TrEMBL record:
It catalyses: D-xylose + NADP(+) = D-xylono-1,5-lactone + NADPH + H(+). InterPro entries: Gfo/Idh/MocA-like_OxRdtase_N, Gfo/Idh/MocA_domain, NAD(P)-bd_dom_sf. Keywords: Oxidoreductase. Coiled coil: none annotated. GO terms for molecular function: D-xylose 1-dehydrogenase (NADP+) activity; nucleotide binding. The lineage of its organism: Eukaryota, Fungi, Dikarya, Ascomycota, Pezizomycotina. Gene3D superfamilies: Dihydrodipicolinate Reductase, domain 2, NAD(P)-binding Rossmann-like Domain. It comes from Cladorrhinum samala. Residues 28-131 form the Gfo/Idh/MocA-like oxidoreductase N-terminal domain. PANTHER family: OXIDOREDUCTASES, TRANS-1,2-DIHYDROBENZENE-1,2-DIOL DEHYDROGENASE. Belongs to the Gfo/Idh/MocA family. It is an enzyme of class 1 (oxidoreductase). This is D-xylose 1-dehydrogenase (NADP(+), D-xylono-1,5-lactone-forming).
Length: 409
């Protein structure tokens, strides 16, 4: 009963949060490049809950669209080109929710303009761009973050705490999104703009890297289904990965799932991890195999469920025959950091994006984050490499590298 009430209260507060806190002196002024659909969820709403963030301006290619977006979301300034926004010295941070194929160019331009950058996932189109951007293009003192928001939430931290990455034998991660969310003309289906399901649902590969806490040694298999009018654009994929500890990971994703398919068994964001048998400390002859399942790793504040199943066997010391077999099951949840054992204030109704923004602001302000979550440049390069591996194995071309080259100053 209390969990139903908790669910209703949290989700009510997600839609209708308590009054926003007043803005502090020295609050960061953000500009948004593009009147994108994801802008309100990923930045505008979380910024309203953050005393140190003001969304100051939005730039859009179309004047009417820019003005309507600004009016709707209470953004005080409108810029009619992306360059105009970058030229404004009062804007210190830029949020980039452009199509993937434009991430590299505008992240680079933003950094060159001296802005901190919150860059939508996937950070860039391929690993060539990732290396160029993350290894050599970040001026000292500036922050660049690939917006893998799911990694900043308490439920994800709690999930990771249940795992023993060295001893993961197999893992499977799914992300199947209902087709009704995206029309045929969506940016996700445009090759030139870095479209494709492996790009958009890059999360499954990120989740797998997190589970194994290492990079895949090889992509053993990669299959895609492509849209009817462009054989380079995948709307569905599945992959099999070999990890350095000998474990096998599987990924699957779709941008064209049926509604029932996506929601049954939490296929829109679920993970299952099976460990190798390990000896139980201090208990001779006892072995444990741990299986961990997570329902909704992507947006845990709404609802999530982490199931930990420990299967024990006790073997005879001499014959090694099984004398006893039993299971211990537990369900775990963390809607706040304290529930995940982290000494950090948070509210149960804060979405991933708010946690991500907190970490971003802390970085910009030079404060240490107590959760320790961050996505380094190296991490983003490895992520882009994994997407490339999947495309290569599937026989599809990598997403095109931007022709933009930084102006030397
Ligand atoms: N973190 C998350 O949960 C999510 C992240 N994303 C990521 O955010 C990005 C944007 O996704 P989404 O908001 O769904 O996309 P939208 O299509 O809603 O927004 C993309 C924006 O890009 C601008 N744009 C600039 N050039 C082009 C062009 N040639 N064609 C089309 N648009 C152009 C448009 O801005 P203008 O207003 O100037 O016309 C448009 O508003 C993607 O990288 C996606 O992966 C998306 C959804 C969820
Ligand atoms: O969280 C997400 O879910 C649906 C996707 O299409 C989107 O781009 C992604 O970020």
């Amino acid at each position: 009963m209390s969990s139903i009430l908790g669910f209703l209260q949290r989700n009510w507060q997600i839609i209708s949060p308590p009054s926003p806190p007043p803005k502090q002196e020295g609050a960061l002024k953000f500009g948004i490049l593009g009147a994108a659909n994801i802008g309100p969820n990923a930045l505008i709403h979380p910024a309203s809950l953050h005393p140190e963030v003001i969304v100051q301006a939005v730039a859009a290619r179309d004047k009417t669209k820019a003005e309507a977006y600004a009016r709707k979301h209470g953004i005080p300034e409108v810029k009619y080109t992306y360059d105009d926004l970058l030229a404004d010295p009062s804007i210190t941070c830029v949020y980039i929710p452009l199509p993937n194929g434009l991430h590299y160019e505008w992240a680079l331009k933003s950094l060159q303009a001296g802005k901190h950058v919150l860059l939508e996932k996937p950070s860039v189109s391929n690993s060539v761009e990732a290396k160029l951007l993350f290894s050599s293009s970040i001026p000292p003192g500036l922050v660049l973050l690939e917006a893998f928001h799911y990694r900043f939430q308490p439920s994800w931290l709690l999930f990771l705490q249940q795992l023993d990455p060295e001893n993961v034998a197999s893992a499977k991660v799914d992300m199947h999104i209902p087709s009704l969310l995206f029309g045929k003309d969506d940016v996700r289906f445009k090759y030139a703009l870095g479209g494709g399901a492996l790009m958009d649902l890059t999360y499954t590969m990120s989740v797998l890297r997190g589970i194994f806490k290492s990079e895949p040694a090889e992509c053993l298999d990669s299959k895609v289904e492509t849209v009817s009018d462009d054989p380079r654009v995948d709307y569905k994929y599945s992959g099999v990965w070999q990890f350095p500890n000998g474990g096998i990971g599987e990924t699957s994703g779709s941008l064209q799932a049926g509604l029932i398919e996506a929601f049954s068994g939490f296929k829109f964001a679920r993970a299952k991890v099976v460990h190798k048998p390990v000896a139980v400390d201090g208990k001779e002859g006892e072995e444990r195999v741990r299986t961990v399942r997570m329902a909704n790793w992507v947006m845990g504040a709404m609802y999530h469920r982490i199931e930990v199943e420990d299967e024990y066997v006790l073997r005879d010391r001499d014959t090694r025959e099984v004398v006893k077999r039993w299971k211990v099951n537990e369900v775990k949840k963390a809607y706040t950091f304290r529930e995940a054992g982290v000494d950090q204030d948070s509210e149960p109704y804060w979405l991933t994006y708010k946690h991500q923004l907190d970490a971003f602001v802390d970085r910009v302000k030079g404060r240490e984050s107590k959760t320790g979550t961050w996505i380094s440049g190296e991490d983003s390069i490895n992520q882009a490499r994994m997407i490339d591996m999947a495309y290569e194995k599937a026989g599809l071309p990598l997403r095109p590298t931007s022709e933009y080259r930084a102006v030397q100053r």
